[in-house]
Write a structure and sequence with these properties.
Length: 473
Protein backbone atom coordinates (compact mmCIF):
# COMPACT_ATOMS: atom_id res chain seq x y z
CA UNK A 1 0.00 0.00 0.00
CA UNK A 2 1.31 3.44 -0.90
CA UNK A 3 2.24 5.54 2.11
CA UNK A 4 0.73 8.53 0.33
CA UNK A 5 -2.87 7.43 0.83
CA UNK A 6 -4.94 6.35 3.79
CA UNK A 7 -5.94 2.75 4.40
CA UNK A 8 -9.57 3.71 3.76
CA UNK A 9 -8.80 5.07 0.28
CA UNK A 10 -6.54 2.10 -0.47
CA UNK A 11 -9.35 -0.34 0.29
CA UNK A 12 -11.72 1.55 -2.01
CA UNK A 13 -9.21 1.08 -4.81
CA UNK A 14 -8.69 -2.59 -4.02
CA UNK A 15 -12.40 -3.43 -3.74
CA UNK A 16 -14.45 -1.95 -6.62
CA UNK A 17 -18.18 -1.42 -6.22
CA UNK A 18 -20.17 -4.65 -6.11
CA UNK A 19 -23.94 -4.98 -6.40
CA UNK A 20 -25.58 -6.43 -3.27
CA UNK A 21 -26.75 -10.02 -3.27
CA UNK A 22 -29.05 -9.65 -0.25
CA UNK A 23 -30.79 -7.00 1.82
CA UNK A 24 -31.04 -6.54 5.60
CA UNK A 25 -32.51 -3.87 7.85
CA UNK A 26 -29.66 -3.09 10.25
CA UNK A 27 -25.93 -3.74 10.06
CA UNK A 28 -23.88 -3.15 13.21
CA UNK A 29 -20.13 -3.10 12.67
CA UNK A 30 -18.04 -4.12 15.68
CA UNK A 31 -18.47 -6.91 18.21
CA UNK A 32 -17.34 -5.11 21.33
CA UNK A 33 -19.71 -4.50 24.21
CA UNK A 34 -21.03 -1.27 22.63
CA UNK A 35 -21.82 -2.92 19.28
CA UNK A 36 -23.45 -5.87 21.03
CA UNK A 37 -25.64 -3.57 23.10
CA UNK A 38 -26.73 -1.63 20.01
CA UNK A 39 -27.57 -4.83 18.15
CA UNK A 40 -29.53 -6.28 21.09
CA UNK A 41 -31.59 -3.10 21.39
CA UNK A 42 -32.31 -2.98 17.66
CA UNK A 43 -33.45 -6.61 17.68
CA UNK A 44 -35.81 -5.89 20.58
CA UNK A 45 -37.31 -2.62 19.33
CA UNK A 46 -37.17 -2.53 15.53
CA UNK A 47 -40.22 -4.69 14.87
CA UNK A 48 -41.18 -8.15 13.68
CA UNK A 49 -39.45 -9.45 10.54
CA UNK A 50 -36.69 -6.85 10.88
CA UNK A 51 -33.17 -8.26 10.57
CA UNK A 52 -30.14 -7.05 12.51
CA UNK A 53 -26.70 -8.35 11.57
CA UNK A 54 -23.64 -7.73 13.72
CA UNK A 55 -20.27 -8.31 12.05
CA UNK A 56 -17.01 -8.69 13.95
CA UNK A 57 -13.71 -8.90 12.11
CA UNK A 58 -12.11 -11.33 14.52
CA UNK A 59 -12.92 -14.99 14.05
CA UNK A 60 -12.86 -16.17 17.63
CA UNK A 61 -15.69 -16.03 20.13
CA UNK A 62 -16.64 -12.40 20.71
CA UNK A 63 -14.81 -11.03 23.71
CA UNK A 64 -14.43 -7.68 25.36
CA UNK A 65 -11.07 -6.25 26.29
CA UNK A 66 -11.59 -8.01 29.61
CA UNK A 67 -7.86 -8.43 29.97
CA UNK A 68 -7.41 -4.85 28.81
CA UNK A 69 -9.61 -2.68 31.03
CA UNK A 70 -10.44 -2.24 34.69
CA UNK A 71 -13.95 -3.79 34.51
CA UNK A 72 -15.19 -0.91 36.65
CA UNK A 73 -18.82 0.20 36.83
CA UNK A 74 -18.25 3.95 37.05
CA UNK A 75 -20.48 6.33 39.00
CA UNK A 76 -20.47 9.19 36.46
CA UNK A 77 -18.96 11.70 38.88
CA UNK A 78 -16.16 13.00 36.66
CA UNK A 79 -18.00 14.18 33.54
CA UNK A 80 -19.33 17.68 32.76
CA UNK A 81 -23.04 18.36 33.22
CA UNK A 82 -25.03 17.67 30.08
CA UNK A 83 -22.25 15.73 28.36
CA UNK A 84 -23.00 12.39 26.72
CA UNK A 85 -20.48 10.76 29.03
CA UNK A 86 -22.38 12.03 32.06
CA UNK A 87 -25.83 11.03 30.80
CA UNK A 88 -24.85 7.66 29.33
CA UNK A 89 -22.60 6.66 32.22
CA UNK A 90 -25.25 7.25 34.89
CA UNK A 91 -28.01 5.58 32.88
CA UNK A 92 -25.68 2.75 31.83
CA UNK A 93 -24.54 2.17 35.41
CA UNK A 94 -28.13 1.67 36.57
CA UNK A 95 -28.93 -0.59 33.60
CA UNK A 96 -25.82 -2.68 34.31
CA UNK A 97 -26.65 -3.27 37.96
CA UNK A 98 -30.20 -4.21 37.02
CA UNK A 99 -29.09 -6.58 34.27
CA UNK A 100 -26.53 -8.26 36.51
CA UNK A 101 -29.16 -8.92 39.18
CA UNK A 102 -31.77 -10.21 36.72
CA UNK A 103 -29.55 -12.37 34.53
CA UNK A 104 -26.96 -13.64 37.00
CA UNK A 105 -23.93 -11.73 35.71
CA UNK A 106 -21.21 -11.54 38.36
CA UNK A 107 -20.67 -8.09 39.84
CA UNK A 108 -19.90 -6.37 43.13
CA UNK A 109 -20.98 -2.93 44.30
CA UNK A 110 -17.66 -2.16 46.01
CA UNK A 111 -17.85 1.62 46.26
CA UNK A 112 -14.87 3.89 45.76
CA UNK A 113 -12.83 6.40 47.74
CA UNK A 114 -10.97 9.29 46.13
CA UNK A 115 -8.24 10.48 48.48
CA UNK A 116 -6.32 13.72 48.98
CA UNK A 117 -2.80 13.44 50.40
CA UNK A 118 -2.20 17.18 50.77
CA UNK A 119 -4.39 20.18 51.65
CA UNK A 120 -3.87 21.54 48.13
CA UNK A 121 -5.89 18.61 46.76
CA UNK A 122 -8.93 19.13 48.99
CA UNK A 123 -10.61 21.66 46.65
CA UNK A 124 -10.66 18.96 43.97
CA UNK A 125 -12.69 16.65 46.22
CA UNK A 126 -14.98 19.50 47.26
CA UNK A 127 -15.58 20.32 43.60
CA UNK A 128 -16.56 16.70 42.85
CA UNK A 129 -18.83 16.64 45.90
CA UNK A 130 -20.55 19.86 44.84
CA UNK A 131 -20.92 18.51 41.31
CA UNK A 132 -22.74 15.44 42.66
CA UNK A 133 -25.28 17.71 44.37
CA UNK A 134 -26.33 19.52 41.20
CA UNK A 135 -30.11 19.75 40.93
CA UNK A 136 -30.09 17.74 37.69
CA UNK A 137 -28.95 14.68 39.67
CA UNK A 138 -31.56 14.96 42.46
CA UNK A 139 -34.81 13.00 42.33
CA UNK A 140 -35.98 15.18 45.24
CA UNK A 141 -34.71 18.75 44.75
CA UNK A 142 -34.73 19.35 48.51
CA UNK A 143 -32.76 16.24 49.47
CA UNK A 144 -29.14 15.79 48.35
CA UNK A 145 -29.23 12.16 49.51
CA UNK A 146 -31.41 11.46 46.46
CA UNK A 147 -28.56 12.33 44.07
CA UNK A 148 -27.99 9.77 41.33
CA UNK A 149 -24.29 10.21 42.13
CA UNK A 150 -24.44 10.34 45.91
CA UNK A 151 -21.11 11.22 47.54
CA UNK A 152 -19.90 11.83 51.08
CA UNK A 153 -16.90 13.90 52.16
CA UNK A 154 -14.70 12.16 54.72
CA UNK A 155 -11.99 13.38 57.04
CA UNK A 156 -8.64 11.63 56.78
CA UNK A 157 -9.46 9.65 59.91
CA UNK A 158 -12.85 8.59 58.53
CA UNK A 159 -11.22 7.49 55.29
CA UNK A 160 -8.72 5.33 57.21
CA UNK A 161 -11.53 3.80 59.27
CA UNK A 162 -12.98 2.51 55.99
CA UNK A 163 -9.62 1.68 54.41
CA UNK A 164 -6.99 1.14 57.16
CA UNK A 165 -4.10 0.72 54.71
CA UNK A 166 -4.34 4.34 53.58
CA UNK A 167 -1.44 6.66 54.33
CA UNK A 168 -1.50 8.93 57.38
CA UNK A 169 -0.94 11.69 54.85
CA UNK A 170 -4.50 11.23 53.58
CA UNK A 171 -6.25 14.34 54.88
CA UNK A 172 -9.58 14.08 53.07
CA UNK A 173 -11.59 11.53 51.15
CA UNK A 174 -14.68 11.35 48.98
CA UNK A 175 -16.79 8.22 49.27
CA UNK A 176 -18.72 7.24 46.12
CA UNK A 177 -20.93 4.22 46.97
CA UNK A 178 -22.34 3.59 43.47
CA UNK A 179 -19.02 2.46 41.93
CA UNK A 180 -18.57 -1.27 41.35
CA UNK A 181 -16.91 -4.01 39.30
CA UNK A 182 -18.35 -6.43 36.75
CA UNK A 183 -17.49 -9.62 34.90
CA UNK A 184 -17.33 -7.99 31.47
CA UNK A 185 -17.08 -11.32 29.66
CA UNK A 186 -20.29 -12.37 31.38
CA UNK A 187 -21.91 -9.19 30.08
CA UNK A 188 -20.70 -9.89 26.55
CA UNK A 189 -21.99 -13.46 26.66
CA UNK A 190 -25.34 -12.19 27.93
CA UNK A 191 -25.71 -9.65 25.11
CA UNK A 192 -24.67 -12.21 22.50
CA UNK A 193 -27.41 -14.54 23.72
CA UNK A 194 -29.97 -11.74 23.70
CA UNK A 195 -29.20 -10.98 20.06
CA UNK A 196 -29.60 -14.54 18.83
CA UNK A 197 -31.91 -16.23 21.38
CA UNK A 198 -35.44 -14.87 21.35
CA UNK A 199 -36.36 -16.29 24.77
CA UNK A 200 -33.22 -15.24 26.67
CA UNK A 201 -34.01 -11.85 28.23
CA UNK A 202 -37.68 -12.16 29.11
CA UNK A 203 -38.00 -8.60 30.40
CA UNK A 204 -36.94 -7.20 27.02
CA UNK A 205 -38.99 -9.69 25.03
CA UNK A 206 -41.63 -8.14 22.77
CA UNK A 207 -44.21 -9.69 20.50
CA UNK A 208 -42.69 -8.05 17.46
CA UNK A 209 -39.05 -8.77 18.23
CA UNK A 210 -36.86 -8.93 15.15
CA UNK A 211 -34.16 -11.43 14.22
CA UNK A 212 -30.51 -11.04 15.18
CA UNK A 213 -27.45 -12.75 13.76
CA UNK A 214 -23.78 -12.44 14.79
CA UNK A 215 -21.22 -13.03 12.05
CA UNK A 216 -17.60 -13.55 13.16
CA UNK A 217 -14.40 -13.38 11.14
CA UNK A 218 -15.90 -10.80 8.81
CA UNK A 219 -14.52 -7.35 8.14
CA UNK A 220 -16.01 -4.39 6.29
CA UNK A 221 -13.87 -3.32 3.33
CA UNK A 222 -16.11 -0.84 1.54
CA UNK A 223 -19.27 1.19 2.20
CA UNK A 224 -21.23 3.06 -0.50
CA UNK A 225 -24.36 5.17 -0.31
CA UNK A 226 -27.14 3.66 -2.37
CA UNK A 227 -27.58 5.73 -5.54
CA UNK A 228 -31.34 5.26 -5.70
CA UNK A 229 -32.80 5.04 -2.22
CA UNK A 230 -31.70 5.68 1.35
CA UNK A 231 -29.78 2.48 2.00
CA UNK A 232 -26.13 1.52 2.13
CA UNK A 233 -24.14 -1.02 0.12
CA UNK A 234 -21.57 -2.72 2.35
CA UNK A 235 -18.91 -5.17 1.23
CA UNK A 236 -18.01 -7.85 3.77
CA UNK A 237 -14.87 -9.98 3.52
CA UNK A 238 -14.34 -13.37 5.14
CA UNK A 239 -11.20 -15.54 5.19
CA UNK A 240 -9.10 -12.37 5.26
CA UNK A 241 -6.78 -13.06 8.17
CA UNK A 242 -3.27 -14.07 7.17
CA UNK A 243 -3.51 -12.68 3.63
CA UNK A 244 -0.64 -10.77 2.09
CA UNK A 245 -1.17 -7.13 1.15
CA UNK A 246 -3.22 -6.91 -2.04
CA UNK A 247 -4.74 -10.38 -1.65
CA UNK A 248 -8.46 -10.78 -1.09
CA UNK A 249 -10.63 -13.15 0.85
CA UNK A 250 -14.24 -13.99 -0.01
CA UNK A 251 -16.26 -10.82 -0.57
CA UNK A 252 -20.04 -10.52 -0.27
CA UNK A 253 -22.03 -7.32 -0.80
CA UNK A 254 -25.19 -6.56 1.20
CA UNK A 255 -27.66 -3.71 1.27
CA UNK A 256 -28.64 -2.31 4.69
CA UNK A 257 -31.25 0.32 5.55
CA UNK A 258 -29.26 1.40 8.60
CA UNK A 259 -25.54 1.03 9.32
CA UNK A 260 -24.13 1.55 12.82
CA UNK A 261 -20.38 2.03 13.00
CA UNK A 262 -19.33 0.69 16.41
CA UNK A 263 -15.88 -0.44 15.34
CA UNK A 264 -14.03 1.06 18.30
CA UNK A 265 -10.42 1.77 17.39
CA UNK A 266 -11.33 1.17 13.74
CA UNK A 267 -14.38 3.43 13.69
CA UNK A 268 -12.76 6.64 12.44
CA UNK A 269 -10.98 4.88 9.56
CA UNK A 270 -14.22 3.14 8.61
CA UNK A 271 -16.02 6.46 8.59
CA UNK A 272 -13.30 8.00 6.43
CA UNK A 273 -13.87 5.32 3.82
CA UNK A 274 -17.55 6.07 3.26
CA UNK A 275 -18.01 7.25 -0.31
CA UNK A 276 -19.03 10.83 -0.98
CA UNK A 277 -18.03 11.99 2.49
CA UNK A 278 -16.77 15.55 2.12
CA UNK A 279 -16.54 16.29 5.83
CA UNK A 280 -13.26 17.19 7.48
CA UNK A 281 -11.79 13.92 8.77
CA UNK A 282 -12.00 13.34 12.50
CA UNK A 283 -8.60 13.06 14.12
CA UNK A 284 -8.05 10.12 16.41
CA UNK A 285 -5.10 9.11 18.51
CA UNK A 286 -4.61 5.94 20.49
CA UNK A 287 -3.80 5.99 24.19
CA UNK A 288 -2.13 3.03 25.84
CA UNK A 289 -2.72 2.29 29.49
CA UNK A 290 -0.49 -0.13 31.40
CA UNK A 291 -1.67 -2.12 34.41
CA UNK A 292 0.34 -3.85 37.11
CA UNK A 293 -0.75 -6.67 39.37
CA UNK A 294 0.19 -6.68 43.01
CA UNK A 295 0.41 -9.42 45.63
CA UNK A 296 2.24 -8.14 48.65
CA UNK A 297 2.04 -6.17 51.89
CA UNK A 298 0.22 -2.91 52.45
CA UNK A 299 -3.15 -3.79 50.90
CA UNK A 300 -4.49 -6.55 53.11
CA UNK A 301 -7.49 -4.55 54.30
CA UNK A 302 -8.56 -3.03 50.98
CA UNK A 303 -12.25 -3.54 50.18
CA UNK A 304 -13.01 -0.64 47.83
CA UNK A 305 -11.52 0.94 44.75
CA UNK A 306 -9.07 3.69 45.71
CA UNK A 307 -8.33 6.64 43.45
CA UNK A 308 -5.87 9.48 44.05
CA UNK A 309 -6.54 13.11 43.22
CA UNK A 310 -5.06 13.63 39.75
CA UNK A 311 -2.17 16.02 39.30
CA UNK A 312 -3.05 19.41 37.88
CA UNK A 313 -0.90 18.90 34.79
CA UNK A 314 -2.44 15.61 33.62
CA UNK A 315 -5.81 14.87 32.06
CA UNK A 316 -6.48 11.42 33.50
CA UNK A 317 -7.51 10.09 36.89
CA UNK A 318 -4.11 9.00 38.12
CA UNK A 319 -2.80 5.50 38.80
CA UNK A 320 -5.48 3.95 40.96
CA UNK A 321 -6.25 0.69 42.72
CA UNK A 322 -8.95 -1.61 41.40
CA UNK A 323 -10.13 -5.03 42.46
CA UNK A 324 -11.41 -7.93 40.42
CA UNK A 325 -14.20 -10.28 41.46
CA UNK A 326 -11.67 -12.72 42.93
CA UNK A 327 -10.24 -9.99 45.14
CA UNK A 328 -7.00 -9.58 43.20
CA UNK A 329 -5.47 -6.11 43.19
CA UNK A 330 -4.15 -4.20 40.21
CA UNK A 331 -2.88 -0.69 39.72
CA UNK A 332 -3.33 1.46 36.64
CA UNK A 333 -3.69 2.62 34.09
CA UNK A 334 -1.10 5.21 33.24
CA UNK A 335 -1.37 7.17 30.00
CA UNK A 336 0.94 6.70 27.04
CA UNK A 337 0.05 8.25 23.67
CA UNK A 338 1.06 5.99 20.80
CA UNK A 339 1.29 7.20 17.23
CA UNK A 340 -0.75 10.05 15.81
CA UNK A 341 -3.71 10.61 13.52
CA UNK A 342 -1.53 10.16 10.41
CA UNK A 343 -0.19 6.80 11.64
CA UNK A 344 -3.75 5.73 12.32
CA UNK A 345 -5.03 6.84 8.91
CA UNK A 346 -2.33 4.89 7.06
CA UNK A 347 -2.65 1.77 9.23
CA UNK A 348 -5.70 1.64 11.55
CA UNK A 349 -4.35 -1.55 13.15
CA UNK A 350 -0.95 -0.07 14.04
CA UNK A 351 -1.89 -0.10 17.73
CA UNK A 352 -1.95 -3.92 17.85
CA UNK A 353 1.85 -4.05 18.03
CA UNK A 354 1.70 -1.97 21.23
CA UNK A 355 -0.48 -4.37 23.22
CA UNK A 356 2.35 -5.90 25.25
CA UNK A 357 2.64 -4.26 28.67
CA UNK A 358 5.56 -1.97 29.33
CA UNK A 359 7.86 -3.80 31.75
CA UNK A 360 10.57 -1.18 32.09
CA UNK A 361 12.12 -0.49 35.48
CA UNK A 362 11.36 3.18 34.89
CA UNK A 363 7.63 2.49 34.62
CA UNK A 364 7.60 0.20 37.65
CA UNK A 365 9.28 2.93 39.67
CA UNK A 366 6.73 5.45 38.38
CA UNK A 367 3.85 3.22 39.52
CA UNK A 368 5.47 2.71 42.92
CA UNK A 369 6.04 6.43 43.44
CA UNK A 370 2.43 7.27 42.56
CA UNK A 371 0.74 4.49 44.53
CA UNK A 372 2.91 4.75 47.64
CA UNK A 373 1.65 8.30 48.12
CA UNK A 374 -1.64 6.85 49.35
CA UNK A 375 -0.66 3.23 50.16
CA UNK A 376 2.76 3.66 51.82
CA UNK A 377 3.45 0.05 52.81
CA UNK A 378 3.42 -1.52 49.35
CA UNK A 379 6.59 -3.31 48.22
CA UNK A 380 8.25 -2.10 45.02
CA UNK A 381 9.49 -5.61 44.24
CA UNK A 382 5.96 -7.03 44.26
CA UNK A 383 4.70 -4.85 41.40
CA UNK A 384 4.40 -6.96 38.25
CA UNK A 385 3.62 -5.66 34.73
CA UNK A 386 0.39 -7.42 33.84
CA UNK A 387 -1.39 -6.16 30.72
CA UNK A 388 -2.19 -3.05 28.73
CA UNK A 389 -5.20 -1.66 26.91
CA UNK A 390 -5.59 0.76 24.03
CA UNK A 391 -8.29 3.42 24.08
CA UNK A 392 -9.56 5.53 21.15
CA UNK A 393 -9.41 9.27 21.76
CA UNK A 394 -10.76 11.77 19.28
CA UNK A 395 -9.88 15.43 18.85
CA UNK A 396 -13.01 17.56 19.00
CA UNK A 397 -12.13 20.99 17.64
CA UNK A 398 -15.55 22.35 18.70
CA UNK A 399 -15.08 21.53 22.39
CA UNK A 400 -14.43 24.43 24.76
CA UNK A 401 -12.74 22.07 27.23
CA UNK A 402 -9.39 21.01 25.81
CA UNK A 403 -8.94 18.43 28.59
CA UNK A 404 -12.29 16.74 28.04
CA UNK A 405 -13.23 14.64 25.05
CA UNK A 406 -16.87 13.56 24.99
CA UNK A 407 -18.39 10.57 23.25
CA UNK A 408 -19.41 11.46 19.71
CA UNK A 409 -22.58 10.02 18.16
CA UNK A 410 -23.10 11.26 14.61
CA UNK A 411 -26.31 10.59 12.70
CA UNK A 412 -28.24 12.15 9.81
CA UNK A 413 -25.06 14.05 9.01
CA UNK A 414 -25.01 15.67 5.55
CA UNK A 415 -25.19 12.83 3.03
CA UNK A 416 -25.01 10.11 5.69
CA UNK A 417 -28.72 9.60 6.40
CA UNK A 418 -29.07 6.21 8.08
CA UNK A 419 -25.37 5.95 8.92
CA UNK A 420 -24.76 6.20 12.67
CA UNK A 421 -21.21 6.68 13.91
CA UNK A 422 -20.07 5.93 17.46
CA UNK A 423 -16.68 7.59 17.89
CA UNK A 424 -14.26 8.10 20.75
CA UNK A 425 -15.83 5.54 23.05
CA UNK A 426 -13.11 5.24 25.65
CA UNK A 427 -13.83 5.23 29.39
CA UNK A 428 -16.59 4.99 30.61
CA UNK A 429 -17.54 2.96 27.51
CA UNK A 430 -18.14 -0.31 29.35
CA UNK A 431 -20.32 1.35 32.00
CA UNK A 432 -22.24 3.30 29.34
CA UNK A 433 -22.67 0.40 26.91
CA UNK A 434 -26.27 -0.57 27.71
CA UNK A 435 -27.36 3.07 27.64
CA UNK A 436 -25.59 3.58 24.30
CA UNK A 437 -27.58 0.73 22.79
CA UNK A 438 -30.77 2.19 24.20
CA UNK A 439 -29.86 5.66 22.92
CA UNK A 440 -29.11 4.50 19.36
CA UNK A 441 -32.30 2.46 19.12
CA UNK A 442 -34.31 5.48 20.26
CA UNK A 443 -32.65 7.67 17.65
CA UNK A 444 -34.00 5.28 15.03
CA UNK A 445 -37.40 5.03 16.70
CA UNK A 446 -37.78 8.80 16.68
CA UNK A 447 -36.84 8.87 13.00
CA UNK A 448 -39.52 6.26 12.34
CA UNK A 449 -42.08 8.43 14.11
CA UNK A 450 -41.10 11.33 11.88
CA UNK A 451 -41.46 9.08 8.85
CA UNK A 452 -37.86 9.34 7.72
CA UNK A 453 -37.17 5.64 7.49
CA UNK A 454 -40.57 4.02 7.07
CA UNK A 455 -44.30 4.62 6.84
CA UNK A 456 -46.04 3.16 9.86
CA UNK A 457 -49.53 3.00 11.27
CA UNK A 458 -51.04 4.90 14.20
CA UNK A 459 -50.80 2.01 16.67
CA UNK A 460 -47.13 1.52 15.88
CA UNK A 461 -46.54 5.26 16.24
CA UNK A 462 -48.08 5.19 19.75
CA UNK A 463 -45.83 2.30 20.71
CA UNK A 464 -42.74 3.95 19.26
CA UNK A 465 -43.51 7.20 21.05
CA UNK A 466 -43.64 5.27 24.33
CA UNK A 467 -40.34 3.50 23.60
CA UNK A 468 -38.57 6.72 22.66
CA UNK A 469 -39.33 8.58 25.90
CA UNK A 470 -36.42 9.49 28.11
CA UNK A 471 -33.84 10.60 25.59
CA UNK A 472 -33.36 13.65 23.45
CA UNK A 473 -31.77 12.21 20.36
Amino acid sequence: MSKAISKAKYLRQLYPFKEPSTSIDHLVIGGGVVGLSVAANLVNTSGKDKTTFLVERRGQEIQTNRARNSEVIHSGIYYPLGSLKSKLCIRGRDLLYDRCKRLGINYKNTGKIVVATSPSQIPYLEKLHKHSQDSSFLSNPNDISTSSIFTKLLSGEEARELEPDLSKEVCKGLLIPSTGIIDSQGLVDSLSREIEESEYNQESLTEDRGEGIIVLGTRVVRIDKEKKGNGWIVQLETNWEGLEEGEKGDVESVRADIVVNAAGLGAVSLSEGVSGDNEDPIKMYAVKGNYMSYKGPGVGNVSRLIYPCPSANIDHLGIHLTLDLEGNIKFGPDVEIIGNSKDYSINPEFWEKHLSPNNSIKLINKFFKNVSNYLPLIDLNKLQPDYSGIRPNIVDSSSKNSKFSDFLIKHDNNNKIGFIELLGFNSPGLTSSLAIGEYVSKILIQKQIKGKYSKIGNEQIKKLEYLSKGWEA
